[in-house]
Design a protein that fits this description.
Strand 4 and strand 5 (163-166) form a beta hairpin. By secondary structure, the protein is of the alpha/beta class. The strands form 8 sheets. It has a 7-stranded parallel beta sheet, with helices on both faces. Strands 19, 20, 21, 22, 23, 24 and 25 form a 7-stranded parallel beta sheet that branches.
Length: 1100
Amino acid sequence: MGFIDLLSKLFGNKSQRDLKEITPWVDRIKAVYPEIDALSDDDLRARSAALRQRIQDYVASERAEVESLKASVEGKDLDEREAIWSQVDKLEKDILDKLEVVLDEVHPEAFAIVKSTARRLAENPEIRVKATDFDRDLSVSHDFVRIEGDTAIYQNHWMAGGNEIIWDMVHYDVQLFGGTVLHKGKIAEMATGEGKTLVATLPVFLNALTGNGVHVVTVNDYLSKRDSEWMGPLYMFHGLSVDCIDKHRPNTPERRAAYNADITFGTNNEFGFDYLRDNMATSPEDLVQRKHNYAIVDEVDSVLIDDARTPLIISGPVPKGDDQLFEQFLPNVEKVVDAQRKLCQQLLIDAKKKISSEDKKEQEEGFFLLFRTYKGMPKSKPLIKYLSEPGIKAGMLKVEEEYMADNMRQMHIVTDELFFVIDEKHNSIELSDKGIDLLTQGTDDPAFFILPDIASLLADLSNQGLSAEELAERKETLLSDYAIKSERVHTVNQLLKAYALFEKDDQYVVMDNKVMIVDEQTGRIMDGRRYSDGLHQAIEAKERVHVEAATQTFATITLQNYFRMYHKLSGMTGTAETEAGELWDIYKLDVVVIPTNRPIARQDLNDRIYKTAREKYAAVIEEIVRLVGEGRPVLVGTTSVEISQLLSKMLDLRKIPHNVLNAKLHQKEAEIVAQAGKPGVVTIATNMAGRGTDIKLTAEVKEAGGLAILGTERHESRRVDRQLRGRAGRQGDPGSSIFFVSLEDHLMRLFASDRLAAMMDKMGFEEGEVLEHSMLNKAVERAQKKVEENNFGIRKRLLEYDDVMNSQREVIYKRRRHALMGERIEMDVMNTLYDAGRILIDTHHPMEDFESFSTDVMRIFAIESPFDADTFRRSKADELTDLLYDAVEAAFKHRSQQIADLAYPTLHQVYTEQGHVYERIMIPLTDGRMGYNVGCDLKEADASQGRSIMREFEKAIVLHIIDEAWKEHLREMDELRNSVQNASYENKDPLLIYKLESYELFRQMIEDMNRRTASVLMRVRLNVAPPQEEAPREVEIREAAPESRRPAPQYREQRHEVGSAEEQEERRHTPAQSTHTIGRNDPCPCGSGKKFKHCHGKGF
């Protein structure tokens, strides 16, 4: 018995410990359930209302104290305001902590209420209850509720995802386990068919009772719409509002109403993009999201791991964004790629000849040429096929070992004859001198594509004894040349990558004259997502489609950092155990494996390993023929569109009917999956394109042995293979799964095939023979673990970079939110004035340069220095800062009061005479350089005697300066991230350099923002009409134009599965919606007796 086994026997394994912790909660639910289930329908609803009230009462005193503190802020000085707001923040955190305590208290009762409601709907076609206002409103927009007098009638059938469903589900015990795990903020791993969607109803209902909102996150918009319609009536029966953000356009009142609902469904991308859009809003009316309270993520591994590889980006056009070099240098790169291809083809022919020779020396030369071919074109299909022959790969690996020795000092002998060198494992490409020579043919400059050593060239200039003017001019020329060549080299490198490392119908497809990325995990098209750093434009140039203009980042966040903002986060999936380490490291989410309701009857067979891909695919076809003959349905899993199409052609030749589901045919998913469980039906699906949809079997199929899963290749991630296996064996159904593997497969070539190839050679395997053993399965899984570790490293690195950005993002977005809402704007403005003064003191005091200090005080604050030169030199920096701040504060308050005093008489006159006509007015202000028209609420401006004018101006100017500075800062951060990668060549850590440089950039941005804000605010005055002789000066006040809704944004959203809503609304494939249309003159469904147009139909 091993040490780990001994520990497990003493303390139990993790699953046993988890179940031991959850079982008491489930016992409490089962204990209270009979009492709850015995209640009448009306009493059940009253019980849930009582729970809701109990939760609100539990934190009522703290909420009242928060409101009282907010009301007391007005008129307090800066220090007192800061103390009050700190207390408010602490109380709001205490409220969230107390809510968790009371939710645990009502947990068993709430779960029992949901289970009892599900049973009643399953057993009764109709449930009659006393009608409430909520029921009446519901009856207008939903067809499952109708009103008869004072009675609301809930039906147990409704439309969901375009199909009518009849409710037939009741929670069983393992679902109570799963629900408890989700409520505790953990991940529930549940097998396919165990009803994860139903499990989520338990914690969603419980946490929605707080009124703080619950977000249910899905992987695509079809599932978010379907699940909101499918599960919605269960919540609505108890007076909880439900909506789906994917049903509404961004930045609309409907989208905001969806977020204000108790329960909100939506896709991960839309939740993330709405957060970014909110932080680009220019008016509080444009904000849609509330505070991030609780989220349940469906298919949590797909969202938090697969989708987390690429950040969400909102980008917009840059000046001269169309001036790109991809199409200009495309012919040069094509010439190099063609030359390399021809060279590698010839090298392979020569290598084969020499290796087949009897002469040992010639054989060695042949393997050397084969290794050179591998370095030049590792993805060449003839090369991959040849390497699968007996002894060939082993011979090449000996050559590789020889040239890899001594830190690859001799590697140039192999690579000098190539035009470029590909490192397949690191996905990188490097031009050789020979390649650069071929690229520069036809240009006058032999260094046309070579970056100069800028450091040494600048040093040489400094040593030439040039005059200051001449030196500056020569430096400018040198840096300009470097920038041009840098862009040139970058363009060529990206084009080379596009040709050598990216294949059409594998990593991407071309549809509607656009390059669309295919998600390697799900096989779905990632509509709207683009490769970064110019790579997407390079692929567009290669495929001869329109090359999109370059863009700059306006707002960005990774999904990791978005979901870490939630007060509580949980998730559910069928496959998270293999990524448990990553989920804990990044999100602090524990994975709990929930036992199945019925034992799994699926038979998982050993992998069948073949030498070549041709043998493997032939064996797959034979297996399909055999299984179809037995009357079993077959699901064939592939890793790319190309393989799907290849297998489809092979089945066509054998005249076997089949369906294909891949990135190109994604629209047919629901229809194809619905047929996939019928006898003899063959379905080819790209890497679980049908994930999240159960394949249901007929009785005849179960008798024949169930669904057969055939994997045509092991994926890089064990989790994806488990997802494929999980399609069979739902709820105790029979089934089988098997993977067909060849030594030519991508994973095997990179990690596992060397020893296997040698072993098959020694054992004298003939073509078509198969290798099959559980030990080989473990070898393949070890290879997968290596890739998983590497991928985790990449994602963690991405997160480390974004963590730097996130700390800055939080500061800016917090300051921006204060400006937008106006609650803390005065405190932020006074802090800005203090910080701007501190910068001046810190800059000039160490040098005792009073003259420059006085000039800067006048330039920024528009006041004389409040102390003389002697005081400046004798006093400490802190004392001087306080003296300067006092003077600045007094001047600012005087200026604010002056504006209010001057504007108030006119304001009061307008309000008195025309207050019933005008709601908002425009006040003209100027800082002497620019004019500003500030919109104010007329009633508020009159009540505050004009003081609110300055607050509105502060909000507008702070927002404007933050947005301009942040946009420029993001551009600089993009450039910094690209430039720091070169630090690795100097044996420095790029991330460390990035952290140091980005801090400096951020500090400079904040200082600049403070100076600009202070300069405008300290100069602002009313833009009064010019005096005419002795006539009194008048303030020109006019009506503000009605606030227009924010227009459709002129930016692109990247990494967006369903595309930007503004641009692609017409192209969306949405399920048929259940429209509940009512004629304007029909009786209103709410039961009021009025016509619809006079009741709930007002404004329609």
